[in-house]
Amino acid sequence: MAGKLEGKVAFITGAARGQGRSHAVRLAQEGADIIAVDICAQIGSVAYPMATPGDLAETAKEVEALDRRIVARQADVRDEAGLRAAFEAGVAELGPVDIVLANAGIAPMSLDAEAYEAWQDVIDVNLTGVFNTVEIAIPSMIERGAGGAIVLTSSTAGINGIGGSGRGGLGYTASKHGVVGLMRSYANYLAPAPHPGELGAPDRGQHAHGGERHHAGVPRVRPQPVAGDGQRAPGRHGRAGRYLQRDPVAGIRRRPLRHRRDAAGRRGVHQQEVR
Length: 275
Description:
Rossmann fold, alpha/beta, about 15% strand
């Protein structure tokens, strides 16, 4: 019986072990072929042992045991050229990518004194590395026009922050907040927006498909602008209007905008948040 992802190709970073390997194996179980990338080397500011070439070979072995194809390459997500070479090698052998899992990440936190480089290393891997991964995959996905899935791995630290004041811990929290921001920005122009609004698409990366405007093969909805004070900016008719927003990460639902008069009789707008 064919799996849900039969004929699909997934591009996974940080695939040598842990979450990355579990992603590779699970998607292979559903029929996907895998492009698996990992640095397979130690980064100086990281106190714990990182993945090895042997770990990446084990991922390949487990995927192949499921009768799926895999192209496994050592590459550093901080190195755009090297990462692109690994991606292109996988595409040349397996075909175009349908799924991207930007999973590679480090957590250079220690109970001892943290390396001075910890801040920059974690930002470069966890944030710039995610950016590099998605940017490398996007052009071919858009050109193909068949849609797809892009998954960015963040953390609870990307929503609430974590304790500690070390360079690595602060860098980790900042990087994961940055990943959430990237996700929201990519969602706004690569797929239907998480907030309802008027139909349309920006100039960046537009292409015609079937008489509608699409990006990566998916009809897109542009969210309405929101004023700095939390109110909805005036639309075409100059009215704030009423609508329902949902934050896809924090899970916040905002009730429709309602008008209220203050003690001086001035008419204002407020929005109540509910979780």
